[in-house]
Design goal:
about 400 residues, eight-stranded parallel beta barrel, 13 helices
């Protein structure tokens, strides 16, 4: 019997109505003052009626001066809660639980962006001829680490007040907490670097601070790389050890993904061809981790068919996460319940330049989300070059608004 539509009860007491989650996708769709507006609200209202048990938002930034993109949503102690309350209500309207993914980009900040570029060490993003697209990071001080820990806790507490059912701490895809976990990026010699226990200290402190700031019934999840897909980087053995470290801290769930901007395995394109056989996308690694994990696992990456979802659950993973598939077919969970499949699929982007291909793939997904906000249906017919050009124009406009907002904020 398929487990797909069976409930999942978490240690915090919440019960998800089924084992299907809309995974986080970076919508890059903030309105004025970096707040959610009618576009995000209408998008999540649409997803709420699609049958998923859980909706996880795209990453919400905990630090107003550190955004992954100029149209990122920011929730800090200066933000009004009302837009976030409406966002949570829209997502929960159809019966799903809604978690806010909270994040700090660290060194993965575009060079044209104002603000700060921080990392565990002054190790820049290496993307060959595209490296100049990112700022040169500075190594964080202990005070900055402590302040950032508190920012995560503040954002989580505000998310709870706004009506979200939980948060997911983003410690994957090469963002700040993932950078601290990586032995390639984290070259510190103090208590934040060296051994895995030290490199995981920041993440553990963030989880502890959130658990102090929120009620015990508020769900706390962590998104973690199953591997970085870079030689000498964070690997599956490291992931298993970090999951064990998180268990006593009250974490409800660990979502497994993989890769970073340098090796975008989460887009199905690891930079090192020798890793291709290992990522399908990450089921083999997840199944191995599930054997020893003390926490329920969620797997995201490349899942588009019900047969694949059933295989994921049969491997010992507790929750199936989908991003692109639900962006293209918002009611995919209900279709699966009715023994139907996706209405459309996006064309793969097979450009030779892997960095641009990954960016174009992301733009294709965002294009579908923008169609939904305008009351139109997603389509698999969009050309990647068209989506990429539209996304670049939207980002340029958003960059001007973000600069003005950040300057006025003081």
């Amino acid at each position: 019997m398929s487990q797909l539509f069976s409930p999942l009860t978490l240690r915090s007491g919440a019960t998800l109505r089924n084992r299907i989650a809309k995974a986080a996708m970076e919508e890059n769709m903030a309105g004025s003052a970096q707040l959610p507006d009618e576009r995000l609200i209408s998008l999540y209202r649409r997803w709420s009626t699609g049958g998923a048990g859980l909706l996880i938002t795209g990453n919400v930034m905990v630090h107003a001066e550190a955004l992954t993109g100029p149209a990122g949503v920011v929730l800090d102690d200066r933000a009004p809660l009302e837009p976030f309350t409406r966002w949570a209500q829209a997502g929960k309207a159809g019966g799903a639980a809604v978690w806010m993914q909270i994040s700090h980009p660290g060194r993965q900040v575009q060079a044209r962006m104002p603000g700060v570029v921080w990392g565990p060490s002054a190790v820049a993003v290496e993307l060959g001829r595209h490296s100049r697209r990112f700022g040169q990071p500075v190594a964080m001080t202990e005070q900055q680490i402590d302040e950032t820990t508190q920012r995560f806790a503040t954002t989580a507490g505000l998310a709870e007040r706004a009506g979200f059912d939980g948060v997911e701490v983003h410690a994957a895809h090469g963002y700040l907490l993932s950078q601290f976990l990586s032995p390639l990026v984290n070259q510190r010699t103090d208590r934040w670097g060296g051994t895995l226990e030290n490199r995981a200290r920041f993440l553990r402190d963030v989880v502890r601070a959130i658990r102090t700031a929120a009620r015990s019934s508020f769900a706390v999840a962590v998104k973690l790389n199953s591997a970085d897909f870079q030689r000498g980087g964070f690997d599956a053995d490291d992931a298993a050890r970090v999951i064990a470290m998180l268990e006593p801290l009250g974490v409800d769930l660990v979502e497994l993904s993989g890769g970073s901007y340098e090796s975008p395995a989460m887009a199905g394109r690891p930079a090192d061809a020798r890793t291709v056989a290992r990522e399908a996308y990450f089921l083999e690694l997840a199944a191995e981790l599930a054997k020893s994990s003390p926490l329920p696992l969620m797997l995201t990456g490349g899942i588009t068919r019900r047969e694949t979802a059933d295989q994921v659950l049969a491997s010992g993973v507790a929750l199936v996460g989908m991003g692109t598939a639900i962006a293209v077919t918002p009611d995919l969970p209900d279709r699966w319940r009715a023994q139907r499949e996706a209405s459309a699929r996006l064309r793969p982007v097979n450009w030779r330049d892997k960095t641009l291909a990954s960016a174009a793939s992301t733009a294709l997904v965002r294009h579908q989300m923008r169609r939904v906000t305008r009351g139109r249906e997603p389509t698999g017919a969009t050309h990647p070059l068209h989506a990429f050009a539209c996304d670049q124009r939207a980002q340029r406009r958003a960059l001007g608004r973000y600069r003005e907002w950040l300057e006025a904020r003081g």
